[in-house]
Amino acid sequence: MKYLLTLLWLLGAIAAQAQEYTGHVADKEDGAPVAGAIVTARDSLGKPLGYTTTSASGDFVLRPRGGGTTAQLDFSTMGYRRQSIPADAGRMLVLLTPEATGIREVTIRAPRLSFRGDTVSYNVSRFTEAQDRSIADVLRKMPGIEVAKSGEIRYNGQPINNFYIEGLDMLDGRYGQATNNIAPQDVASVEVMENHQPIKALKDIVFSDRAAINLRLKPHAKARWTGTLRGGAGWSPALWNGALFAMRIGARGQSMVNLKTDNTGQNPSAETERLSVEDILNGGANDYNPAAHLSVGTSSAPLDDTRTRFNRSHMASLNNLRKLSEDYQLSSSLTWGYDRLASDRAARQSWYLADGTRVDTEQESAASCRQQLSARIALKANTERFYMLEKLEASLAWNDLRAVLSGSYPNRQRAEAPAYGIENDLKYIRRTGTRSLTVTSYLKYLTRPQSLDVVRETGSQRQTIADRAFYMNHNAAFGTQAGQFAFAFKGGVSALFRGLVTDLTGTGLGTGAANDLSAGYAGVYLQPGITYRSQRLRLTLDLPAGYRRYGLHDRIDGNRNPAGIFTWKPRFAVKWSPTGHLSLSASGTVGRDAADDSRIGNGAVLRNYRSVLCGVNEYRQALQRSLSAGIAYKNPIGGFFASLLAVRSWNDLPFLPAQRFDGDYIVNYYVHSSNHVRSWYLSGDVSQNIDALNGQAGLNVGYNLSGTELLLGDIINTNAAYIAKELATMGIDLYHQTVVGDNPERLKKALHDAFDRADLVITTGGLGPTFDDVTKETVAAYFGAKMVRNEEAMERIAGYYAKRGIELTPNTRKQAEVPEGCTVFQNNHGTAPGLAMEGKGKLVIMLPGPPKEMIPMFTDSAMPYLSRYSGKTIVSHTIHFFGIGESLLESRMHEYMLAHKNPSVAPYAKDGEVQVRVTASAPSHEEAEQMLQPVVAEICRDYGKYLYGVDIGTMQKALVAELQKKHLTIAVAEGASGGNLAKRITEVPGSDRVFEMGVVTNTARAREVLAGVDAQVMETYGVYSQETARAMAQGIRRLSGANIGVAITARTGLESDSAGQELGLAYIAVDSDAYQHVTKVDLAGNRSAQSEFVRYVSSSSALWNGLKAAWKSGSAN
User: Fold this and answer.
1) How far is CA 1020 from CA 176, 1009, 1026, 1030, 1070, in A?
2) Of the candidates 405, 380, 400, which has an alpha carbon nearest to the alpha carbon of residue 391?
3) C-beta contacts of 300-309 below 8 A and 24+ residues apart
4) Taking residues 735-763, what's their average pLDDT?
């Protein structure tokens, strides 16, 4: 074996020795050695087996590798002809012939993108094309960068947190002035600084996921004025567009001037808007911008502005930055904008209501003129040791809006909506080693004196608003590091002081038409946080918590609504970057933020000619939860960027927005009802640089899904919760609830399914006059009964419509049709009667849909009917109020309604007044009364200024009873109210002992003769005035000798001179020794302001004033 191995080794050595080639390479002409020539060994197929180069003396030694057999050797080098010779085992001499070598032309271009550390640099020239007019046009082509329509810049799906020009922030987030005007030929590169912390003193203490952009200019654009001048014009129609832009960017300072004018649909002032720039220290806390009160303006369409925006716009801005030293810089800006818009639109709306379908049309021509003047000055220092920012801003805005409408509600509108604000922002940070101390202070004052005037054929409405607010937020924070951990401890105080005074006249709404309140809060908060950071992983946990003490003083009703609220909302976030290209992130939060104070003011505010908003004077929190996850990939060298974000949120909200009609007006209000909103948000971006396109190709997708656990039917039919609560007091359990449309087959199936589950079924809605109100017919078919007319219901319906001056149609007569054999519940607050029907061992109760009709019918009729099945005694007391609207009273009584299940509390409205029904269920009448008394007493005490009686029946009964009690007498003088007041008083038994006399005076002469009014008063102030009403009350009291005189002078629309006058306007006066007062009742602009309705509401107000005079008077004895 030993000899065999030795033999194999010798044969291998011989073979290796045979594969070595040596030789000398020289110049054929002069014999000089050729150094650096490449010698390549190839097999018979031309495959290379090895190579070497000649030495300085021209010699070479080549040992091919690869196991093949060498067939030839190739020799090549610059300046000589290529030569091949057969492989020879001996030493070779190779002579190369001199020959010029051709070289192909090579173009060397700078890369489009480069990547260094956390900075991606885009070569602007590689993305610029001839048609690009601004650097924004070029940014849109850069992979990973998006420019939104608003001008906001995003990098890899996230908004940038700062925008620099040569490393300086001159524009304070209003970078649209730069991106839309700087020429791409002046910019050398765009730098994107990832994970950018703009405050140097917070580096490695407070981390940011956002990027910043820095523009690097070319040498010719530095330290000198550069700019552009553009313009264009046309005629038929006259159009123009002009712009002058100039800038000077130097090492010690920067300046920028921008002038623009346009009427082609562009809005130059949009460039001066502050875009989404991150506030590293306070997030969104330093941002108090309450919602707009008015909603009048021009219309818009989902089309390009150049097609739909008819404008005349101008803008001028001046920005400046000066470096005072290496540490300090002073920046300032002054901006003026003017934007005049005009629009025309037409619309048709259908409202599907319980009593039929309502169709409205409108054609609108609108114009708005907005001017804004703003100024800013800021002093900033930004070093690794300390940071300081002192910024003062002021903004003045004027907005004048006008609109002319025709259609269902012709009118003219004019709104003036100025807003004036001033704010100061101070930030200071001192850092020592790994420790930092931060102090911030923010103050803002805002005032909005606004008004809206609406002029109609039937009268005018006016809304005035005075809204003032002062907001402050001060805090201090301490930060430190320990290894890979960073700790932050932050604490502060914040406060808001707000005054809101509004007044609305001319609408005749059944709700309060004014606000006069002071509101706000003072609070403290803490926000500890910890961050762990390694090369690939970052974990963050924040634990904010606080306490706010809210206060609200309503000077109209004297109520004060203090509230103490704790806030807490911990948040965690994690980001993992396994490679320099890929990062994954996730975050989550849960907690309760501060209460939303934007809804305060439960008095009606007219937002436009038809829309009314009523807020709520209480503070409640929402419970918010959210989870998010994202993935981002970037390859800057390859020009590929991609990101995906998913967000899931769960919000439990305390208020539900709702709408109702009040005459012609759409009243928007809030219902105290918990509702759970669940939503998904998904977004994705992908972009790839394509050299052939000199830009990028990309895809941006978004998906948003939001849902609520409340069905649409539950929102419209809020009756179910009330009925369930009332049934519970009777010992009747609600087993199932169903929402079904007005479709006979579906309603029939729902009815059969309901009777399969239970013996008692209660329906609400579907009793009205329209063709799709089929509840009665479906129930009749189920029980096999025919439809018959109920004459009492017919008489009530006819009287209801006659009182309002509305024609009785066949559709309305349909409401009096009922199933034969049923029990009819007459409707004292509407038209459609309710029904009860029994058969087949089943019972069905049918009630109208509108809550103001359903609630009193349920308590007055249905509950007594059902009491025989419950085995309990049900007792109710009705508390009567005047001078407060139903929605206003209901919003203030939420606590009663929530706290009391048995007894239950339910408000409902009648014409011009509100009643509150308190109902208790108990084994005996005595026990029910014991339960009722404290609740009734509490409500009467809290709302005594509006109270006129308990179980009194009507206001005229209350008045007669009070007059009899104090042995007082009353006399009335009525102008244009048709004797309605005297009729209501005299229909009360025993009124002859207190009612002296009443006169009806339709003319000025009658007022003079019968009511003793001085003719000079009427000539000076007019027949329909508070002075005339006062004189009538004084005169009738003097002529009759009564203790109290009450007078009405009103325009009901029946006067011979009523054309073009403000209808629905009444003045009510009362005169006595103890009380003199004049009340204005304004129903103008309300479609319900028919003559009978005006007379009724005016007489109700007169009864109320007479009652107050009786209360204040002593006994006549």
Assistant:
1) 61, 18, 12, 14, 21
2) 380
3) 300/343, 304/265, 305/265, 305/266, 305/267, 306/264, 306/265, 306/266, 307/265, 308/265, 308/343, 309/265, 309/266, 309/267, 309/341
4) 76
Euclidean distance between CA atoms 71 and 46, whole angstroms: 8
**% pLDDT > 70, the chain:** 87
Helix (H) or strand (E) holding 772, with range, is: none
| Residue 4 φ then ψ, to 5° | -65, -45
Residue 488 tokens, joined: 């932050």
Amino acid letter for position 467: D
The whole-angstrom separation of Cα 709 and Cα 732 is 26
As a whole number of angstroms, the distance between CA 191 and CA 214 comes to 5
When mean pLDDT is compared over 696-710, 997-1011, 1087-1101, the highest value belongs to 997-1011
Q: 16 pLDDT exceeds 60?
A: no
Q: Report the alpha-carbon distance of residue 493 to residue 548 in Å, rounded.
A: 9
Hey, what amino acid is at 816? Answer: A
Residue 452 burial (CB count, 10 A): 25
CB 1057, CB 1023: distance < 8 Å: no
Q: Are 461 and 1063 in contact (CB under 8 A)?
A: no
Structure tokens at 778: 């479906």
Average pLDDT on 903-922 reads: 76
**Mapped to the 3 state alphabet, what secondary structure does 1057-1070 carry?**
CCCCCCCCEEEEEE
**Per mean pLDDT, which of 286-290, 496-500, 673-677 is the most reliable?**
496-500
For residue 866, what pLDDT is reported?
81
Question: 3-state DSSP call for residue 639?
Answer: coil
Angle, helices 955-966/1091-1112, rounded to nearest 10 degrees: 30
User: pLDDT tens digits for 322-380?
Assistant: 999 888 999 999 999 999 999 888 888 877 665 556 778 889 999 999 999 999 999 99
- The amino acid that residue 240 corresponds to is W
Q: What percent of the chain has pLDDT over 90?
A: 35
- Report how far Cα 1 is from the mean position of its chain's Cα atoms: 94
